[in-house]
Amino acid sequence: xxLVNHHWIPRDIVGGNLALDLVNTVSGWNNDSEDWVPDIxxxxxxxxxxxxxxxREQNEAARHAKDSPVAAxxxxxxxxxxxxxxxxxxxxxxxxxAAEPGDLTVIDEWNRRLALSEQVIVRxxxxxxxxxxxxxxxxxxGLRVTAAALSFLKNxxxxxxxxxxxxxxxxxFVDQSKNRSRRWCDMAVCGNLAKTRQYRARNx
Length: 204
Prior knowledge:
This protein has about 200 residues and is mostly helical. Helices cover about 50% and strands about 10% of the residues. The strands form three sheets. A three-stranded mixed beta sheet has the order 1-3-2, with no helix packed on it. It has a two-stranded antiparallel sheet with strand order 4-5. The longest helix has 26 residues, at about 70-95.
């Protein structure tokens, strides 16, 4: 997999859930794939772009990464392991295939980490769970993605999960259209590019 230092912009965030947004940090899953978070700095930019981290949290995480580069690399490697597990699991759900036990083990381990990091709070006269403030900012993206992924996987119909068919894309997204007719991750990008290629193929 080629490492690419991608310039993240809000338009890149098309998954509809943080779990799929993490999966989509790889471009071209099925053809000449590229990893768009090659280092901890680019990963933190992605986290800020998709709002899994606030600006203050991103800056704090960057300071931690600078002070503890080994810990930062360990966090990034662990998050990428979660990314691959989520990709394979959502792909198996989308295509109605059996899930790999190893992927469930990875997600279960992140679920355990999340449970250990949470505390009970009262919010709006209701009991809720929040990540303990003592948790390092470097750990927050993986934990928050895990929380979003668990809710997503438990409550959303697998029929809503789709993969962009563009040759060099393969991003996954939640199809929220009423008749489940969405085809592309972004019609203005992959959809129009595919139409242009089809036109050129027909007209030489």
